[in-house]
Write a structure and sequence with these properties.
- The structure holds 2 protein chains of 2 kinds.
- Chain A folds into 2 domains: 330 residues, MetI-like (MetI-like fold, Orthogonal Bundle), CATH 1.10.3720.10; 228 residues, MetI-like fold, CATH 1.10.3720.10.
- Chain A is globular.
- In chain A, the strands form 2 sheets. Chain A has a two-stranded antiparallel sheet. In chain A, strands 3-4 form a two-stranded antiparallel ribbon.
- Helices cover 68% and strands 2% of the residues of chain A.
- Chain A is built from 25 helices and 4 strands.
- By secondary structure, chain A is mainly alpha-helical.
- By secondary structure, chain B is α/β, with parallel strands linked by helices.
- Chain B has a single domain, classed as 3-Layer(aba) Sandwich (Rossmann fold), CATH 3.40.50.300.
- The longest helix of chain B is centred in the middle third of the chain and has 14 residues.
- Classes of the chains: A mainly alpha, B alpha/beta.
- At the A-B interface, α8 and α9 of A face α3, α4 and α7 of B.
Amino acid sequence: MDNTLQKTQNGKRRINVSKGKEKTVGALFFVCAGLSVVAVFGIIAYILYASVPAFREYGFFQMLFGAKWNTERGEYGLLTMLVNTLVVTFGALLIGGTIGVFTAIFLVFWCPDRFHLRYEGKNRALRRIARAVNAINLRTVFDQVIKLLSGIPSVIFGYFGVSVICAMIKGMDVYGIGKGPLASALVLAIMIVPTIASLSKNALEAVPQSYFEGALALGNTKAQAVFRVVFPAARSGVVSALILGVGRAVGETMAVAMVSGGRVFFPEGLFTPVRTLTTNIAIEFADAGHAWDDPLRSALFASGFVLLLLALVVNLSLNLVPKEYKGKKGTKQLRGQGGEAVYRKKGLVPEILKYAAFFMAALVVAVLISIILFILINGIPHLSWSFLFGPSDFSHPSLLPAFISTGYVILISLAIALPVGIGAAIFLVEYAKPGSKLVKVIRTFVDTLAGVPSIVFGLFGNLFFCKIFGDTYSVVAGSFTMALIILPTIIRSTEESLIAVPASLREASYGLGAGKARTIFKVVLPSAFPGIATAAILAIGRIVGESAALIYTSGMLVTTEGSAVNPMNMGATLTVFLYMCWAEPNSYLGFNQAYATAVVLLLCTLILNFAVYLIQRRVQKKQKR
Amino acid sequence: MKDRITETGAKNRLDRFDFTGETAVRVEGVDLYYGDFQALKKIDMTVKKHEITAMIGPSGCGKSTLLKTLNRMNDLVEGCRVEGKITVGGRDIYAKDTDLSALRKNVGMVFQKPNPFPMSVYDNVAYAPRTFGVKKKDLLDEIVERSLKQAAMWDELKDRLKKSALGLSGGQQQRLCIARALSVRPQVLLMDEPTSALDPISTGKIEELCEELKQDVTIVIVTHNMQQAARISDKTGFFLLGELIEFGETEEMFTSPKRPETERYITGRFG
């Protein structure tokens, strides 16, 4: 694509403004952008197509509103699962939404910058420790806590749910098990907290400082100003955050599969076993026949289709959130408020809410710490060299094949999704008219793709990619599926970093006579590199954490037997391995192996989060200069 | 002209501020630091009741800073330290037991950029009374009407009280903010360059309004516009690099300034 500068015969450089080539490049980017539209339609069409036999046999509405699901008797009503999904999601929203929003409020308004330890004594070491502790930026730490919580693979939450949450609440259960709607809602709540907290935080920070000051100047306490003016001003953003949290909860599969009890009953209490739409697919798919019109298989695709519709509705409802207010200049500095200020008449409700915010934030930290400790304490004793990197067979499964499979999936899916995603972002930012219909349509589709539950991607991958690559599970098919999953993330974050590149840089390049393509490749993309790198790392995190989309695409095979080296064969990634320890336990593969694997995954998450943090800190430092 | 808000929740606090005397605000030997930077140096100033006091000076001279110390909005700035004594209505407002909400109820503030809350016109004006515990609908209605009338915009707005305040023009928004500040019957009204974001016509309206409000409240206004200070104020203070260079009758200051710096500034030779 080096089409701009060429040497002519007399050695002078001549600018080659070849319009044809420029157009080709532009068209290429357009194709990349269009791909997400195609993907959304493709997924809907394929899954609908595969559910046709079931719909034809039982009728669409009968499936949707039939309550009985019995595979042996050939009854495939989805209503029970639909209701369970809604109930569990609602519970998660109630708990996780409250915790997430209040945590965001704490973070924006009350999180102190740093500790204020005072040690004036003689002990040098203690003094140094005090200084080091005081140097910690608490806001950054808290941000990282939330990011870490969102990066932990969902299967780990499943184990935490089974072993800790169920154990905590089983005292209330007459059967002493603890699984069911309550456990599912609690686990989901923890999982949607980071989404809700970080998006609500953005919304709160976008509220102009002048609202806050205006309220204080009218005699409000800080809590009154926050809860009566600033928070209402951010409500549309907070509502969007809650909706995205709902999307996440509706689509979550593995963690719920582990704590819901898995039986097709309506929820009759907090502890009756239930099964949601997603878990239904995960649990039953292995038993389904391979033929296209196998009734169970088709019914599962049908439940995937219903799930997809549900996700689409959730996603589209985002557009209904009124955007009455748009913050121009926000703030990150709503602090201060001198220590000895006295308010004789504090509003009671805002004060209570303030302490609620403190409490919820502390709760989030406590949950993260307990998850990490739970994994480390249970996992580290079972880590060994032979378990990590030894040869793997059925009686001595090791993680080596899983490492290799995971590596393949990361490499292949990034190799596909990065160029396509960057190309799409370039089209949206550099080629398309900003704010045009086309851009809006493509963005809507990218967001829709991002909202599709991963188990639905798994179904699509099973239908489409597994067919293409030899009609069987394979690491390649899993990688292509993952490429689709990470595509929206990559497009969105690349877009953001492209928009952040100042227009003056582009103008300078054009001013020197460079063409559009050259400007993009030589000027814009290099300045956007940190953003793209961040997107890639986040994508890796998603791949490492994903399991629902992979179990029925790349398969669940843990042994090497010379096979995992070849990406055309099936192979379990680390997270799938972790899931198998629970789903198909045997004397060699159980909770001990699971915890050890979880330690490895936790380490991966930590490293990836740290990498993102380093990149972002560097960018911020550069901007300050 | 007393309405019931002063008698509802705020009674026992209000009597701590005593505005019966001549002086509304007294600033005595005030130094103010932002970290190591000294933004105000030994300021002495007396604001008389029912007068308009203007503060002028080049950007960064400390006039807005001084204004914000009068209702302690400077508390928001981290590392801000005030030394000296500021009395409002006979009370040292930096004393440890100062009730900030009572202070800010008595010392209202209007900001440089209009900052109506994203609520209806009515809710904006009713906001502060509600904060102070007024719940009765008819009392709130009364306060809203009185405040909007005081801000000379009742006729403009009485039919759109339920509309969002963000839909008003910039000048209207600013006058609404004045009405909002007046809703709790402050004794002192601080105005931080209230017209700098407005067009000349809206500016004229606000200046007119200040003249009228003088009967009810004491106004301290920071302005970049010297003509504005000359037009509306009774007293003027000229600030330079954190010092109050000259303070006195406005007419005198603009006709025969005592200090050469003041003369150079008002004749436009620096600043």
